[in-house]
C-alpha cells in the first residue's frame, strides 16, 4: 500500500446521477485468454480499464500475443500469430496479482506443449484451492508438477477429451475445462458445471472461434474437440457485479443512480432482493437504431424511494442464485433496514470478515458458524463463520477502514459514503482491480471524496 493509497470520504450525501458499466470483468479476462487458442486475430469490445485486464494483457504479451487498442474506446485486438514461450522469471513478475493465470494452462499446452503458471493472487476470501483444475488437467493428459516458484505443466501425449464431474459447480474449473477441451482430441463431458452468464458468454466466444459446445440440462456440458480455432469478434455481457454494487450504493446512501449498460436478464435474482428490501428500480431496454431514429442505450435506474427499508433473508449460491459477489455491497444497505436480515454465504467459506469493519462504524452484525435461514451447505459442519445476522436500522458513523478484498472493499466505500462524518479508506487501489474509473464515477455521482 502506498502513502497515496488512501481515500478520504466525507459521508452523508446521497449519490445521484448516472454512470456506465462496461464488459464483465469475469468474462473479459477469460475471453482474452481464449484468444490464445485461435490462429487468427480476435477483437473484443467494451473492455474496461481495470487491473485484472492489465495483468492478462501482460501475460499474453509475454507469450507473444500482440495486443493493441482498436479504433473504438475499449476495443482490444489480440493477435496470436507468434505465440512463444516466456521464461519463469518473466512470468513470475505477475505472481500474486490475479487468479486468471491458472486459465492459461490448457491454451498454452495446446499452443506450446508446456506451460508455467505463477503463484496465483486474487481476493483473500478463503483458501481458494485449485484441486478441481489440476484434477481436470490431469484427466486431459497433462503432467502437472508443483514447484516452489509455481506450477509446470507438460502434455507428453497431447490432450484428450474425457469425462469429468466437478465436486462443486466451480466457475474457474468449468472455464478451465472449456478452454482445454475445445482443442483436445475427442469428446469431453463435464457434469456439475457452472452455468453463470459469464460462462455462457465464454461459450459464445469459443463458438465464434469454431468450437462445438453443447449445454445440456442439469449442468452438463459436452465439448467436441476440433483441430483448429480461428479468431472472434465479441461484445461482452455487461458487468452485473459492478451494476449491483452501484445499486447497493444508491440504496445505502438514500440516492438515485442510473446504471447505463446494466441489463435485467442476468440480474433478475438481485432485482428481486433489491425490491424486497424496499429499493426501487426501473429498467429501460436497449433499442437498436432504426431508419430515421437513433437507438437508445439500455439502463437500470436504482433508487431509494423514501420510507423504511425491510429486512430480508438471503442465501448466496451458484447461478441462478444470488451471487456471492453481490452480498457485500448489499449488506451495507441491509444495515439500514428495519429488523433482522440473514445472509447465508454458501459459495465461499470466509467471506464475511468485512462485517467487522461495518460494526466498527455502528452496524450490528453477528456472524455464525451455523447454516442460517436456508438449506444446510457444505460449510455448516466445517466450523466456518459463514452466516450473518444484521440488525437494523443502525446509524453509521465515520471510521478508518482498511480494504481487505475487491467486493468487501467496495462495501467499505459505500459504508463510508453512507456514514456521517469523514472516513479514511486505506488500500483503495485494490478497487481498481474490478471497478473501472471508480473515483471518477464517485465524483460524477456527487460524492465528496479525495485522495489522502
Ligand atoms: C469466480 O471465481 C470469480 N472470479 C469470483 O469473483 C466469483 O466470486 C466466483 O467465481 C463465484 O461466482 C473470476 O471470475 C475471476 P469458483 P473462481 O471456482 O472461479 C471452490 C470477484 O470479486 N473451489 O467458482 O475462483 C472455491 O474455493 C471474484 O470478481 C475448490 O474447492 O470461483 C469456492 O468455495 C471473487 N477447488 C467455490 O469452489 C477448486 O479447484 C467456488 O469457486 C476451485 C474452486
Question: How would a textbook summarize the main sheet?
Answer: 5 strands, mixed
Inertia-based shape: globular
Question: Spans of 5+ residues with little confidence (pLDDT < 50)?
Answer: none
Percent helix, as a range, is 25-40%
Instruction: Supply the CATH class of the largest domain.
Output: Alpha Beta
Pathway: Cell wall biogenesis; peptidoglycan biosynthesis
Protein name: UDP-N-acetylglucosamine 1-carboxyvinyltransferase
Pfam families: EPSP_synthase (PF00275)
Catalytic activity: phosphoenolpyruvate + UDP-N-acetyl-alpha-D-glucosamine = UDP-N-acetyl-3-O-(1-carboxyvinyl)-alpha-D-glucosamine + phosphate
Could you characterize the architecture of this molecule?
The protein is an alpha/beta fold. Strands 17, 18, 19, 20 and 21 form a five-stranded mixed beta sheet that branches. Strands 22-23-1-24 form a four-stranded mixed beta sheet, covered by helices on one side. Strands 2-14-16-15 form a four-stranded mixed beta sheet. It has two domains: 6-21 and 238-451, Enolpyruvate transferase domain (UDP-n-acetylglucosamine1-carboxyvinyl-transferase, Chain), CATH 3.65.10; 25-234, Alpha-beta prism (UDP-n-acetylglucosamine1-carboxyvinyl-transferase, Chain), CATH 3.65.10. α4 packs parallel to α6 (171-181), α6 (171-181) runs parallel beside α7 and α8 packs parallel to α12 (406-418). It has 13 helices and 24 strands. It is globular, with a radius of gyration of 22 Å. 29% of the residues lie in helices and 24% in strands. Ligand EPZ binds at residues 25-26, 99, 123, 126, 128-133, 168, 170-173, 194, 241, 324-325, 347-348, 406-407, 434. Ligand EPZ binds next to α1, α5, α6, α10 and α12.
